[in-house]
Structures are given as structure tokens and as C-alpha cells.
Amino acid sequence: MQYKIMFVDDEEQNLFLMEKIVDWEELGFRVCGMALDGLEGIEVFEETDPDVVFVDIRMEEMDGLTLIEELQKKGKNAVFVIVTAYDEFSYAKKAIELGAKNYLLKPIDRQELIPMMNTIKNELDEKSLQEKNSSLLKSELNNRIVTKVFMQIEEHLSKKDQQIDISELEQVLGDKVYFYFEVFSQDEPLDELVKTVKDWKTQYVVPSYDCLYCIALESDRKEIEAEFEKLIRYAKGKIYFMGMYEGFTKSSELAEIFKKAYSKRYECFYDNKSRIYGENDSIMTGDDSDYAAKLPGDEAVRNLVYKAERENMQEYLKRLIKNYTQKAINPSLVTDQMIELLIEIKSQLTQVYKDRAFFILRHQNIWNLYKVRTVRRLGTLMDRVICEASVDIENIIENKGNYSLMSRITDYIHQNCMSPAFSATEVADEVNLSRNYFLKIFKENMGMVFGDYVTKIRMDKAKELLKNTDITVYSISLEVGYESQYHFSRKFKSLYGVSPIEYRKM
Question: Can you tell me where the transmembrane regions are (predicted)?
Fold first, then answer.
């Protein structure tokens, strides 16, 4: 990193010599200004904002020490190097009091100057790194707070009693005037869009499912709008939308603005032209009529279920999306029908494949469907869902997954339960169930609780080893998943009425 340096001396010859005495750029500095007295020095300082200032002490208009005092009163921070022909303690003492720790006598000795400048550069590097790290840490913390608040607001829309804590947000935003805007696209990957929007003087960018929630200073509104217009000018066929909303000074106002935006953004659902819109713009491209597609029992659904005919299902989806587009159906109705379609598929899968169908479509986040902003995005998402379901069905048909859920569970337990760290959570994760639900269905299907089942397997193995081998009880306890011989022996005796040693002798 290169730092700026300036010289203040009332003799032009000295200024020339200081500029030429070393290769400043090689040392990591760039000469940014010179001044012939203290008054001019203040002006040059304010224009150039140097990191290091060489100051002659004795000057007519304003001496060097007074110059340093005046700059410090103005809150100017720099490294000051005192240069003087007078080796007087009083000057040195005053300079030190002002924070000028570097003191050079004229004529300046290069052998003394270079090590001093290396030290100054190292100190500036360290200070810069600390400031950068501090700034990054603060920025990261603030981003987390803003993200958390947006997630709370989102959740509040679906759970009306959900409380929104804005106290931390108030500390982050302070009393400045901000405005809220959203950016989303039918074509651009969200992570790429984030990079673009962050370069627009945007204070905070929070990626949601397929939309960016953004906060920027009100003073930057026109510049950000211009950046968006530049983006769509060179979009090369890609479609972008930006919703811009009123300014706010209180963090509590953000939730209400977000609600307006949440409803408004759906109006771009069928739009095929990039645009900027505000909360009062009317941009809905279609009517709000009801529409009911024929979903339950549809032949395409049955084909998917019985034959995993992916192409037929994809073609069906295309027709459905095209129908929505032509009739400009209310987006919320479209989303409802997509969910109804998934439910029907799941229902028929369960009827045909019983518990083998448990995992198909289980991981689809229905909430994501509700957050889709464009018809093109909806079609892409549903197409992916159908493809994933088809692969799972094909696996079942080819007997790659042709065993029941409980068979999978018990097989996994038998293969892994001898580890001391083995737990119900591990098994639940393996079969993609919550721990509580896993324990519930395990007991319902096996007639005993999970812990007793694992203990039985371990103890059966222990009895086999006790009868058929000579290995020690301690080694057996380790082999069947107990880290303590005491606990193993105690459990064994509680189950069989005798200790492991007594059992071996029987």
C-alpha cells in the first residue's frame, strides 16, 4: 500500500531536496503536496489529506509546532516528522507533547531517514489493517442484524403474532434518512445480482429466496436508480425489476414499507419487460379472475407416479404455465395450484409405493413457492421438483430403494450402534427425519423405545463374545459401545441378573 506524504518548509531549496533525497515510491510513499509556510500547509493538507507530514519548525508566517496544533484542533490525523536545524531540547519536548515522535536534524541524512520511513510505513500498515478488520467486523455484525430483522418481518407476514425486535436495527441505522428498495430478476443468478447491487452505494443487501432486500441512504436514491437503468440498458435480453419505496428515518417504519413491497412485487409476475416501479404505480399486467386447473387425478400425474414419465410431466407443466400466462391469473392462485399439484403427486405416490415414497418431495420447501416473483422462475422451480421426484421414483422402480423405511433404519442401527457416540439424532439425520418424529415412528413400528432396542443389540453381541471368546470384559465393553466397564457391567446385570464374569462361567 502506498501512502501520501507532504513537506512544509519556508525555503524552496529544502523542499526540492526533500523531494529528491530518496525514491519515495520505492519506500511506499507518494509526494502529494508542498507548502512554504504553516498557513499554506493547512490549505495543502486539507486538499490532499496526507498520511505523513514533514514540518520545519521555524517558519515566519506560522511555525511548524503551531501548524501541528492547528491541524490537530481540526481533527486531522497524520504522522508528523519535525525537521529543524536546531538541536534544542525545548523544541523536541514540545514536538513530543504534540505527538510528533519523529525528529530529524538538517541536513537530513539518508541513512537516518530510510530506517525511520520504514518504521513509519510499518506502523501505518498495521494501523490500516486494524481499521480494515474493525470496519469489516462492524459491517458483518451490522449485516447480520439487518438480515435478522428482515427475516423477522418475513415471518411476521405469515405469523401475525410474531414480534419484531428493531432495537438493534435502530442502533445500526442511527438517525440518517434511508430508503428501501428491492431488486429481482427472471434470469440473473441471485449471488451475481448481490455483487452488482452492492456496488451501487447500497448500505445493506439481504438476499431472500429470489429477491434482494436493500437499504440505502436517501441521498443516493437518484444515483442508485441511474445504476439500475444502466444495468437494464446493457442487460442483453435479461429482465430485471426494481421496486423503490419512500424514505424513512425510524426503523419501526421499515416493517410497514416491507409489507407494501411484498404485495407490490407480485404485480411483476407476468411482466416481460425490465422496469422500475414505485408503491403507487399500477403495473399489474393481467386480471384478477379466478381460475381452476384440472389437477387431482390428471393423467400426467398418474403417469409420473406409475411410470416416472418425466417428459410427459414436464410437458404438462409447460402447458399449465402457458395457460397461466395467457390468462394472467392472480399469482397467489397460481402458487396455490402448484402446491395442490405437489400434494396430489405425493398422495398418489404414497398410495402406490407406501413408505418407500416417504422421501419423495419431502424436502421441498413450500414457503419457497410462495416467494417466487416471476412466472418463469416458477416454471423452472417446478420443473426441477418434478425431475428430482422422477429420479426417486425411477430408483424405486429399479429396486434401488426397494425396502421399507424401517428396514433402512434397523439396518443402519445394526451397522453403527457399536460406536460410543451413536445416538437417535444420528439415525434421524440419516433418514432425514426430525429426532422427535423418528423416535415416535420407531416406537410405533418396533414396539419398544429406541434406547432399549440399541441396548438389546449391544448386549446380544456382548453375550456372544463372553461365551465364544477369551477377550476381557473391559475389551468387550468397548467393543459394544460402552466407554466404561462399570456402566457396561451394571447394565448387563440389571438385564440378566448376573455380572458379565458370572455369565461367562455359566
Answer: none
**Which residues make beta-bridge pairs with 277?**
243
Could you give the strand order of the β-sheet that contains 52-56, starting from the edge strand earlier in sequence? 29-35, 3-8, 52-56, 79-84, 102-105
Residue 190 grid coordinates? 441471485
Contacts for 112 with CB less than 8 Å, ≥ 6 apart? 104
The region of weakest confidence among 162-166, 246-250, 345-349, 433-437 is 162-166
Angle at 354 between CA 303 and CA 440, to 5 degrees: 145
What span, in angstroms and rounded, lies between the C-alpha atoms of 280 and 437? Answer: 47
Residue 362 lies in a domain: yes
CATH code, domain carrying 198 = 3.30.70.980
Global pTM exceeds 0.70 = no
Q: Are residues 171 and 272 in the same domain?
A: yes
Whether the pLDDT of residue 200 is over 50: the answer is yes
| Direct distance between the N- and C-terminal alpha carbons of the chain, in angstroms, rounded to an integer | 81
- How many folded domains does the chain comprise? 4
| CATH classification at residue 450 | 1.10.10.60
Same domain, 393 and 409: no
Contact residues for 279 (Cβ-Cβ < 8 A; gap 6+): 243, 245, 246, 260, 261, 264
Opening angle at CA 101, ends 98 and 105, nearest 5: 110
Q: Which residues form the domain of 262?
A: 167-278
> Which pLDDT does position 4 carry in this prediction?
93
